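The record is kept unedited without comment:

——
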Amino acid sequence: MTHECAKSIVRRMHDPKFASHYFVGQGLDVGGAPDPLSSFKPFFPLMTGCDTWDLPQGDGQVLETVADETYDFLHSSHCLEHLVDPMVSLRNWLRVLKPGGHMVVMVPDEDLYEQGVFPSTFNDDHKWTFTVFKTESWSERSLNVVDLLRHIGPQAEIQKIECLNSTFYHGMGRFDQTRLPTTECAIEFVVRKRPESEVAAKGRLPG
């Protein structure tokens, strides 16, 4: 799953919010190598730049050298499943965002990617599987995205949760479909960081 960011670009270009709301200003791409979002800057004209954070920079879960409220947006494509504690990761990713900024994250969907087998036979470094929401999962390491986002803090305003299954070939048999040039086997979610005024008001109210 080394070029899932590149695979997402055409889809994202057809959703105007990526260019007008999400990828605006200076961003941080956690786990971006070797397929960094910065390579696609010309397609998002309001993006002024995007730094890549990967193993040479340190632990992507902690971002220990990044100060609070540094970036306008944060992007991460298929990194969260490699980290020890996804909840700690998401809270730190939200921490480094400026108020009003957006966090755009992709993780593999457990039914589309691992397909009923864990530890993963397609990527043995995966520490977790993910689903948008299930009451039960076949995976003992399954995390519901809905539950994760509910608990990262009052500043997290969920903008989008989507299962990216439109190009998945059901009925193909067990096969890593991310090896195909068109298929995403993922969940994408977008979280906006509420300013303190919205947290105090318990919502984003007019005025």
